[in-house]
């Protein structure tokens, strides 16, 4: 029987659409054999692989709000006084990391209930890093990290450069895996998946909205870069799901419920195609 892999891409708050996709797949009786995630997709992948059901995640994830963006105000104040103070990111990322650690009881990535792989990037080596305890085909040993806490791997995977501080781990400087690969389709295949369903959440249509802050320019720049990148990446998927979430910003916490509903409807509408791909 074909092994089904799920590749969950990044996209900020719209990543909560992944939960709706998982809900629709579970409702249809489709079993996922392995899961790979990047950035926002890493959060959902980690919770699912640990053992949370889509229904449980629908209760947990909407509780994440702006209060989990722990801006590094003290460092900025020190910078005003001492120019030698280093500012590595606007947000520490520790509050969100600690939430994941609490929800997973401090589990290591090897402790989860199903095969999982999360993506990060090592800035020092300019190389993709895969957090996994699985044996991966066509992947060098030095490119994988298997002895890391699940929450630390998730934090590294969602640490968008400049917005979040990098994660320092054993002399590595780790940031968001989307810098090099925002949707880990090839990784899911390396885990042994015969068929890979990818969830693409990146859109970059023309906009009339003004760019009124440094953050808005940064978010738009990231979206454009990822949109161009994913045109190539998606060719390797057996099926791509694209929930209609064009107008939702990367940090619009108020739209989580909308995103989950969109993910569910997208997967439900393409369920016939999903089943045909799996059967064939």
TrEMBL record:
<keyword id="KW-0378">Hydrolase</keyword>
<feature type="domain" description="PNPLA">
    <location>
        <begin position="6"/>
        <end position="188"/>
    </location>
</feature>
<dbReference type="InterPro" id="IPR050301">
    <property type="entry name" value="NTE"/>
</dbReference>
<dbReference type="InterPro" id="IPR016035">
    <property type="entry name" value="Acyl_Trfase/lysoPLipase"/>
</dbReference>
<protein>
    <submittedName>
        <fullName>Patatin-like phospholipase family protein</fullName>
    </submittedName>
</protein>
<dbReference type="Pfam" id="PF01734">
    <property type="entry name" value="Patatin"/>
</dbReference>
<keyword id="KW-0442">Lipid degradation</keyword>
<keyword id="KW-0443">Lipid metabolism</keyword>
<dbReference type="InterPro" id="IPR002641">
    <property type="entry name" value="PNPLA_dom"/>
</dbReference>
């Amino acid at each position: 029987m074909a092994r089904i892999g799920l590749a969950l891409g990044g996209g900020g708050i719209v990543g909560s659409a992944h939960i709706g996709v998982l809900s629709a797949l579970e409702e249809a009786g489709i079993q996922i054999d392995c899961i790979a995630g990047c950035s926002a997709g890493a959060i959902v992948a980690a919770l699912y692989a640990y053992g949370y059901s889509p229904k449980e995640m629908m209760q947990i994830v909407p509780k994440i709000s702006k209060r989990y963006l722990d801006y590094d105000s003290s460092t900025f104040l020190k910078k005003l006084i001492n120019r030698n103070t280093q500012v590595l990111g606007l947000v520490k990322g520790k509050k969100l990391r600690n939430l994941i650690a609490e929800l997973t009881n401090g589990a290591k990535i090897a402790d989860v209930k199903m095969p999982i792989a999360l993506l990060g990037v090592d800035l020092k080596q300019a190389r993709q890093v895969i957090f996994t305890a699985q044996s991966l085909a066509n992947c060098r040993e030095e490119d994988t990290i298997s002895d890391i806490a699940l929450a630390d791997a998730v934090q590294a995977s969602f640490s968008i450069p400049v917005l979040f501080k990098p994660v320092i781990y054993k002399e590595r400087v780790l940031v968001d895996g989307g810098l090099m690969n925002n949707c880990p389709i090839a990784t899911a295949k390396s885990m042994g998946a015969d068929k890979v369903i990818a969830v693409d959440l990146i859109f970059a249509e023309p906009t009339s909205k003004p760019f009124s802050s440094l953050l808005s320019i940064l978010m738009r720049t990231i979206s454009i870069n990822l949109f161009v990148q994913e045109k190539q990446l998606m060719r390797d998927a057996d099926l791509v799901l694209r929930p209609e979430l064009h107008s939702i910003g990367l940090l619009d916490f108020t739209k989580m419920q909308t995103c989950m509903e969109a993910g569910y409807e997208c997967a439900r509408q393409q369920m016939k195609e999903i089943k045909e791909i799996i059967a064939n």
